[in-house]
Amino acid sequence: MSEKLTSSTESLKAINSIRLLASQMISKAGSGHPGIALGAAPILYELYANQLVVDPDHPNMLNRDRFVLSAGHGAALLYATLYAAGFDLSSDDLAHFRLPHSKTPGHPEVGITPGVEATTGPLGQGLGMAVGMAMAEAKLHDQFPNVVDHYTYVLVGDGDLMEGVSHEAASLAGKQVLSKLIVIHDDNSISLDGDKSRSDISDNIVRFESYGWDVIDVPDGNHISAIHDAIDKAKENSKPTFISVKTIIGNYGPFAGTSKAHGTPLNEKQLDDLAVNLNMSISDFDIDDNVLQDMRQRIQTRLIHQRLPNTDELAAYKLFTQYHVTETPKLTDTSKTQAGRKISKAVIQAFSKQLPQLWGGSADLVASTNAEIVESSLFNKNNRAGRNIAFGVREFGMGAVMNGIALHGGTKIFGSTFLVFSDYMKAAIRLSALQKVPVIYVFTHDSVTVGEDGPTHQPIEQIMSLRLIPDIDVLRPGTAAEIAAAWQQALTSVNRPTVLILSRGDIGAQGTTQQANSAIENGAVELTTQPEAVINLIASGSEVQLALAVSRQLNVPSRVISMPNLKQFLSLSSKEQTQIIPKAAAENVIIEAGTTLGLQVLTGDTGLIFGIDRFGMSASSQKILDEYGLNASVIVQKITQYLEK
User: Fold this and answer.
1) What is the pLDDT of residues 582-596, one digit of tens each?
2) CA–CA distance, 97 with 29 (Å, rounded to integer)
3) Domains 8-304 and 320-507 in one fold
4) Which residue in 223, 381, 472, 630 has the fewest CB atoms around it within 10 Å?
5) Within a 10 A sphere around the Cβ of 556, how many other Cβ atoms?
6) Is pLDDT at 336 greater than 80 in this prediction?
7) What is the pLDDT of residues 154-188, one digit of tens each?
8) What count of other Cβ atoms lies within 10 Å of the Cβ of residue 360?
9) Distance CA 456, CA 419 (A)
């Protein structure tokens, strides 16, 4: 059990100090969210003063409790609390809230502020990431019970719980019976535009009960002992726990209980009045030494009582988490073309033997994406050793959970669905890149060759839209060896997410392992060439086979370039690009079964692009390709006409 409060006066002074400090930060910045800072400060104080096992001097301590502020607009409240708790933040850092290059950005960013566990602000995703952290803890605790044994806490607001991803993540958490996951709801019934009742009548207590959670209602958010007891009770539950704490947004401020409190900074007079209401004096971005000493001592006391892991078990844990790829798997049966997803399945099996920390799953599409570890079973409440996750039809939730698993550390995670459904999870993919977490997205059924399922299932713009996201590797391998090399890069990445785009259509076995590695490393590789080529046929994915067919039928010499990573190729110097795709006396022709917008960077004003700029249709894959002119005879004819001009 956690330490009981020794003095209500003492705790109130600390809470009001945090309230005032956060409000100062927002007022100086001229923007921010004082409503949550004034309303939810008792929750943050209770967590850091009396519950969380964390070490401010070592914020990445292995067996620390995780806290995620899903309501990321409460950043000033979190920073003020982290400062009070003794994390490496100074008064000057607080005074630079929301300024460029500061340690206190406008919303929490992992890797920027000590003690911040996840980048939040896009509502609902923090809850999803917390679910992922709790899943990672459950898996690692099963194998290393004395090394990994901690709680995951998350503070959510009304907006978080309106977002659809919160439903996906919470439902999954209930199914997985994540007993060490504790969600605290800052229930103030106010959203940015007005009362929550304008748009939402959900009973969140009933809702979370229906997910299989234990629920606790705290009717007064200023009742610190009630919050304390609720969290202590949650720690004893055998299910995840949802604690609803009724708060007043902007409490003690000029706009208390109204939507105006959400994002309206206080002016100088209002800040002075707030200090009077709180019975506090405004200091220069600081907190009374006695408050700091008491809060920090409470944290240190919990650290002293934390059980140290067995040395042998800790060594085993470190070995488990540090397994690495030793070799690219040798693919068998490469004499024939196969679907990219099937080649990928074989690659996953080979790499899973080298990497026991690898696990993942699908949004209820394993039978189609083939993204599974065949020799393992499902991860669930009775089998934490399972390496396959049944994410269910929850694409956005899957992405958020994967981010949380990666942020927790200790394992390597992948998740799969059809490429067209990447749109459901784009916000999570973006956060993967922003947080620099090496999650692996496996997107199959990569073009209109999905066929009879029709335009709803046929991606057009998705490949290019994913390429537009900064700091992410989007790989669309065109040969079997490139698929293996792409997986190897994804599995060895430590600070970038990877998107693997795989085909339902056939991928060939052309090229050597060396060529494949070069393609992934440089973004492109020359697969075939002819002396004095006048056409450079550039393609990705299954269209590489089409480019090879075109090359064989052309009556002029040509070379075929597989380009699995357009962004990587474009990052090369002009000289390096020319070494891969010679420009002298040759025109570039692009073949890609998707939108042509953006590919002009490779063709310039003179080259040709064969792609698709309209939605697909319900028909067999070959009929669709013929309809859109993506067959060898049509392309050869148009290239010939183009050269004759």
Assistant:
1) 877 789 999 999 999
2) 6
3) yes
4) 381
5) 14
6) no
7) 999 999 999 999 999 999 999 999 999 999 999 99
8) 27
9) 11
Q: Reply yes or no on whether the pLDDT at 645 is more than 70.
A: yes
Helix segments in 144-278, DSSP class H:
158-162, 164-176, 204-210, 224-236, 260-263, 268-277
Beta-sheet pairing, 214-218 with 241-246: parallel
Active site residue 117: no
Q: How far apart are CA 274 and CA 27, in angstroms?
A: 12
pLDDT tens digits for 209-245? 999 999 999 999 999 999 999 999 999 999 999 999 9
Find out whether 160 and 71 touch, Cβ atoms under 8 Å. Answer: yes
What is the pLDDT at residue 327? 79
Write out the two tokens for 18: 């945090």
117, 395, 526, 592: the active-site residue: 395
**Tokens linked to 617:** 């249709």
541 or 511, higher pLDDT: 541
Q: Which CATH number fits domain 523-644: 3.40.50.720, 2.60.40.420, 3.40.1080.10, 3.40.50.920?
A: 3.40.50.920
* Cα–Cα distances in angstroms (integers) from residue 643 to residues 143, 400, 584, in the given order: 64, 49, 15
Q: Taking CA 122 as the corner, what is the angle to CA 117 and CA 128, rounded to the nearest 5 degrees?
A: 55
Closest CA to 41 of 27, 59, 22: 22
Helix, strand, or coil here: 637? helix
Tokens of 603: 């063709």
* Helix 395-408 vs helix 426-435: crossing angle, to nearest 10: 20
